[in-house]
From TrEMBL:
InterPro entries: SPC24-like (IPR044951)
Name of the protein described by the UniProt record: Uncharacterized protein
Length: 223
């Protein structure tokens, strides 16, 4: 805004105008008239300058006002942006939480499958242990009742040991499963030394023994 000393004094302006009118009415000489005209020109120039400066000041103030409005609008936009950003941040955190829960659920499902698999394997191990115990019991019964201990090292033939507790020794026997029973009896020399060889039913007993041996081999294959 222009200097306050340059402001137009309305009363002074009216006074100068009245003096000019008085001078014209009194009909003074041309010099006084020329002085009045010069004063009027000076006053007009002063007023124009003052008006120009005032307009410049108004334009400057208007620019400042517009700048303030722009900054206010920008601040409002930034506030709205922050609010939107907070909303997006909350939405992102919610999605991340859901994804975390899904991952935890998948991990729990995987652990549950592992647990079921371990339980199944444990059941198989227990079943194998039971089968092994049953096979051992069968071997023990076979050795106790028939005095024959089967040998599973040779899968192609039926072999084993005939135990003689009185002599504290064991004789090995071996023959082809496809061999006829009378050949088995004739080739199984240690069998002739058994006390029950000449008793009735020896063939039936030997057949029973061979069946027990085969059953023991089948049980061993299942282990």
């Amino acid at each position: 805004m222009g200097d306050t000393n340059k402001r137009v004094d309305i009363e002074k302006l009216f006074s100068l105008a009245n003096d000019l009118i008085g001078m014209l009415n009194d009909g003074k000489d041309g010099d006084s008239l020329m002085q009045s005209l010069e004063s009027a020109k000076s006053l007009r120039s002063f007023c124009e300058t003052n008006v120009h400066e005032t307009n410049m000041s108004l334009e400057e103030f208007q620019k400042r006002i517009n700048g303030c409005k722009e900054r206010i609008d920008k601040v409002k936009g930034e506030v709205m942006t922050d609010s939107k950003l907070n909303e997006l941040q909350a939405e992102l955190e919610e999605k991340m939480h859901i994804e975390h829960l899904l991952l935890v659920g998948d991990e729990l499902d995987y652990l549950e499958q592992q647990r079921i698999s371990f339980e199944e394997q444990w059941q198989l191990v227990k079943q194998r242990e039971n089968n092994m115990r049953k096979s051992k019991d069968a071997f023990s019964m076979c050795a106790s009742v028939t005095r024959i201990i089967p040998d599973h090292t040779n899968k192609a033939k039926i072999s084993g040991y005939i135990v003689d507790r009185s002599k504290k020794k064991a004789e090995k026997f071996e023959f082809d499963p496809a061999m006829p029973q009378f050949e088995v009896i004739s080739t199984c020399n240690p069998c002739h030394e058994l006390p029950c060889y000449h008793q009735v039913g020896w063939l039936e007993k030997l057949t029973l023994n061979l069946a027990l041996i085969r059953n023991s081999q089948i049980s061993a294959d299942l282990i």
